[in-house]
């Protein structure tokens, strides 16, 4: 009989690539992870992982078991959801992680809605960058992630998670008021190819959006200044330090007195935001109202 908790460990090792990283994600010791992998290999009668200089990788047998692991764990999530529904659980805590702008735009309004429609559900919110919440979800540190599309993100067909699309927002060009294009109705990105750029650090999903948009316009932006805080990005643009692309909602509350904000001409870069839960958990009586409230807030 294969123990489900050992399947969690196998998936963590596959996701993280090393026993040490998997152990840290699962709050276990590396030796405990190794022992559980050895026990799983004994249960299945197959060698499941191979260790190398750069970490571990799954064997062919391990890959086969991983495919079934995702299905089994999703079914267990469904079982928990049905049992919770059976017991009519209407009170409890849901942990949610979202990036800061998403908290302001949809999470806050969703919490206000839940206070009226499901007062027994308590949502504990954590601030996490748009690319950080999905690993937290898969590692079972949170129940719901409000995330952003980025290169390397689990795709819509990933059988580990279920998605709820929330919204897509455009990026606007932010220029110093003295910039040569500050008076234009719209700004073509190709006209900013020789400018100095300000933007988020590599790894931030918004950095990917900016770089890809500029590449589609025929150039690679030359970043001179970096910040993950868009208020700082706007302040630097207003000071004449360069130009930037900023999600429209992130401009709310920023000091724009010395900056010109212009829509982008042509293909407009956008930030695509979605909520995600572990596959099978979307019907849980505590999680379903949270997803419904997030969807309603995004629609509103």
TrEMBL record:
Gene Ontology MF annotations = DNA binding; DNA-binding transcription factor activity
- Cite the Pfam families for this sequence: HTH_1, LysR_substrate
Organism domain of life: Bacteria
* Domain called HTH lysR-type: residue spans: 2-59
What UniProt keywords apply to this chain's record, in alphabetical order? DNA-binding, Transcription, Transcription regulation
A GO cellular component annotation in the UniProt record: protein-DNA complex
Family matches, as PROSITE patterns: HTH_LYSR (PS50931)
Family affiliation: Belongs to the LysR transcriptional regulatory family.
- Protein name, UniProt field: LysR family transcriptional regulator
* Species per Swiss-Prot/TrEMBL record: Streptomyces triticagri
């Amino acid at each position: 009989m294969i123990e489900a908790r050992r399947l969690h460990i196998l998936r963590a090792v596959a996701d993280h690539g090393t026993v040490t990283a998997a152990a840290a994600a699962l709050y276990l010791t590396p030796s405990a992870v190794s022992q559980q992998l050895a026990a799983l290999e004994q249960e299945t009668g197959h060698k499941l992982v191979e260790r190398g200089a750069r970490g571990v990788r799954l064997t062919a047998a391990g890959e086969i078991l991983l495919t079934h692991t995702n299905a089994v764990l999703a079914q267990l999530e469904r079982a928990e959801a049905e049992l919770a529904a059976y017991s009519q659980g209407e009170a409890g805590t849901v942990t949610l992680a979202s990036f800061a702008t998403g908290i302001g735009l949809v999470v806050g309004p969703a919490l206000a809605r839940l206070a009226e429609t499901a007062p027994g559900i308590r949502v504990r919110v954590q601030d996490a960058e748009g690319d950080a919440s999905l690993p937290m979800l898969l590692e079972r540190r949170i129940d719901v992630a409000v995330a952003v599309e980025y290169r390397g993100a689990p795709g819509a067909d990933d059988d580990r998670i279920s998605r709820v699309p929330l919204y897509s927002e455009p990026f606007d060009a932010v220029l110093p008021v003295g910039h040569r294009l500050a008076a234009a109705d719209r700004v073509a990105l190709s006209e900013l190819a020789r400018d100095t750029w300000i933007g988020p650090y590599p790894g931030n999903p918004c950095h990917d959006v900016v770089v890809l948009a500029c590449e589609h316009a025929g150039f690679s932006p030359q970043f001179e200044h970096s910040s993950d805080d868009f208020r700082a990005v706007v302040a630097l643009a207003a000071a004449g330090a360069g130009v930037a692309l900023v999600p429209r909602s992130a401009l709310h509350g920023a000091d724009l007195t010395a900056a010109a904000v212009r829509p982008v001409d042509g293909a407009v870069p956008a930030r695509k935001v979605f909520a995600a839960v572990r596959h099978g958990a979307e019907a849980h009586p505590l999680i379903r109202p949270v997803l419904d409230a997030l969807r309603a807030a995004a629609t509103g």
